[in-house]
Cytochrome P450 (Hibiscus sabdariffa), 82 residues
Amino acid sequence: MAHDKATTKKVMPFGGGPRLCPGADLAKLEIAFFLHHLVLNYRWKTMADDFPLAYPYVEFKRGLLLEIEPIPDMAGIGNIET
Ligand code: HEM
């Protein structure tokens, strides 16, 4: 059934109906830009002793603390920041 407990979407970050956030598409575009630059220009790995739990939903034991470091400039190869 389409609306049983397993499939109902309870997370609505932008609201819904007539009060739906009018900035939702802009916000999602900005998030896509951010993730694009993050994965292209930074290495990131989870801190030691953290791991994902996949049940009953995805969460991290220690809150997904990340170690992030910029990828050194390789004369423009594989790095889009100048
Ligand atoms: C991640 C970013 C954003 C989130 C999570 C978010 C979330 C929300 C939520 C939950 C509401 C209330 C909806 C309701 O009352 O039911 C709202 C309203 C609103 N948001 Fe956003 N929003 C975001 C970004 C933006 C941006 C970028 C803009 C404008 C450029 C924007 C403009 C507005 C406006 C004007 C309202 C009031 C709409 C109304 O009352 O009719 N929001 N937003």
